[in-house]
Amino acid sequence: HLATSLPLPSERDHFRPRIDLIVFMIDIKSKYSLKNVEASLAHVDASFFLGKVCFLVTGVGRVNACSIDTNAVCKLGETYCSPVLFCELELEGIRVATAQRLLRMLQICAGHIPGVSALSFVSLMRTSDDD
């Protein structure tokens, strides 16, 4: 399911399936994209930041067209203890690999991978520099 921003409309709450993973998409060429994500973060329950949120940054293949500093996005990931994935959607190989990675994250967050929880998965994604 896709939403352009949060909060989600409440009139369809009873039809909405369980939310296992929230992927915030940020277009590196649009400052509005980052501002929209930052505004939406206030509407996410704090428990989701324990392994059920990630940031997907698109458009990273064109450095000269960037409107957002990648450090700002990385800081967002650090602040919310959530992974940041960078991709270029226009390149099929990267697009497919990113989709597979997101699908695997969703399987983990939904509890379909025995022995791996969303929280343990996020701790595995952290680099040793984060400690």
From TrEMBL:
Query: Which UniProt keywords are given for this protein, alphabetically ordered?
Result: Centromere, Chromosome, Nucleus
| Lineage top rank: taxon | Eukaryota
Which Pfam families does the UniProt record give?
CENP-M (PF11111)
Q: Name one GO cellular component term.
A: chromosome, centromeric region
Where in or outside the cell? Answer: Chromosome, Centromere; Nucleus
Could you tell me which InterPro entries the record lists for this protein? Answer: Centromere_Cenp-M (IPR020987), P-loop_NTPase (IPR027417)
Stretches assigned to coiled coil: none
Q: Know the name of this protein?
A: Centromere protein M
The gene for this chain is Cenpm
